[in-house]
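S1.2 Input.
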Amino acid sequence: MTFPEWTKPGIYGAVGGAIAVSILGFTWGGWMTNGSAETMANDMASDEVTLAMVPVCLNMSAADPERTEKLAVLQEVSGFGRRNAMMETGWATRPGSDTPDRDLADACLAGLELDGS
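S1.3 Output.
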């Protein structure tokens, strides 16, 4: 079986074009691998759950009989110490969990609108 002369350059051009389109698609076209998409989806879901839990955190702080003392401690501390103090209050613990959540502590601090937070 004989092939025309243009077959070899045509195949090289098609392969080169496919490689070029793939490179452009992944760098500028917004394409991504399955693993990257799954990681991005998990991060977005975690962020949304944290935002949904902020009202629960604020309600727990409002119902706490030691609220005034705990808010005074939060006012005194700054930086990462404030997040750790927030986690120690117990307000940043999701229902059904035994450990406080760092992201929820940050979001709840923002919701409390403390001076300098």
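S1.4 Remarks. The mean pLDDT is 91.
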